[in-house]
Structures are given as C-alpha cells and as structure tokens.
C-alpha cells in the first residue's frame, strides 16, 4: 500500500495540486462536522429557524418549499444529525482519498440542498463554488493522487476509482 502511495505521485503527479485541494476541502468538511457536533447545532433548532427565516424569500420550487416546511422543519434534529454525519463522511473520504467519486456525488447533493434550503439565490457564491469543487474532484478522480483510490485503481479499474 505504501508503494502504491508513492507510485501515485509518479504516475498521476499532475493531479498533485488537485490532491492538495481535495485534502483542504476534506479538512473544511471535517472541521465543520466537528464544530456542528460539539456546538449547538444538534441541540438547538438553528436549522429549523434558518429555514423558516429564508423560506419566504426563497426562490426554490414550490414542492421543495413544501418539503422543507412539512418534513424538515418538524424533524429538524434528524436532518441536523444527517448533515453532521454527511459532512464527517465527506471530510474523512476526501482527506484519505478513498471513494472520492461517490463521495463527491454526496457532496454535490449536500451542497445543492443547503443552497436551495438556505437561500437559493444565484448570487450565493459559496454554495455554487462548493458544487463546482465537488463536481471537479469527482470528475478528475482526485483520490488517485496521494490517496487510497490509486491503490484500488491499479488493481480494479472502474468508474468508482
């Protein structure tokens, strides 16, 4: 496994800047998950209050607003735990470089939902930027350089590595 790690720099070294970006984004998600887990995100209805605050000016489709109002707001604690667990999975996967492509799909889903739920305006640069970053990391297979994905990519070629 160590040989495959060093070998990844030799064969896919052109992805080295993308690997550093992947690790940075993974650290960002891991840090956000820890802040949310040990903060008041899981114990106080901040998510429900944020959604209620943004819902009147939200530009999301009507069915999504109804879903937010009818399902997410009453069950805010379940969705808060789901967000924290998803952020933790994305962070660990990006840092380790393991299953980056499926995790990038999970990241796209999370960023898209948070953008729609908490604003949805086209000027929301952070949500759009995260969508583009997850798409880029998944498209390039960023886990193949300085990550565990190269070890599996060498042995079993496939779309997930």
End-to-end separation: 15 Å
Largest sheet: none
Per DSSP E runs of 2 or more residues, the count of β-strands stands at 0
Determine the number of helices (DSSP H or I, runs of at least 4 residues). Answer: 8
CA radius of gyration = 18 Å
- Overall number of structural domains: 1
Average pLDDT reading: 82
Inertia-based shape: elongated
Class per helix and strand makeup: mainly alpha
Detail the poorly predicted runs: none
Name the beta content range. Answer: under 5%
SSE ordering? HHHHHHHH
- Amount of helix: over 70%
Describe this structure as you would to a colleague.
The protein has helices spanning 2-11, 16-38, 46-54, 62-72, 76-96, 100-117, 125-140, 149-155. The chain has one domain (2-155). The protein has 8 helices and no strands. 71% of the residues lie in helices and 0% in strands. The chain has 161 residues and is mainly alpha-helical.
């Amino acid at each position: 496994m160590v040989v495959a790690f060093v070998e990844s720099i030799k064969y896919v070294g052109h992805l080295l800047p993308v690997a550093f970006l992947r690790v940075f984004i993974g650290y960002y998600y891991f840090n956000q998950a820890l802040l949310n887990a040990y903060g008041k995100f899981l114990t106080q209805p901040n998510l429900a209050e944020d959604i209620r605050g943004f819902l009147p000016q939200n530009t999301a489709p009507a069915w999504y607003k109804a879903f937010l109002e009818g399902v997410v707001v009453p069950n805010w604690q379940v969705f808060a735990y789901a967000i924290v667990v998803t952020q933790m999975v994305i962070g660990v996967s990006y840092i380790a470089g393991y299953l980056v492509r499926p995790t990038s799909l999970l990241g796209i889903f999370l960023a898209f939902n948070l953008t729609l739920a908490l604003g949805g305006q086209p000027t929301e640069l952070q949500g759009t930027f995260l969508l583009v970053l997850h798409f880029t990391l998944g498209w390039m297979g960023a886990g193949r350089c300085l990550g565990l994905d190269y070890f599996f990519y060498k042995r079993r070629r496939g779309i997930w590595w």
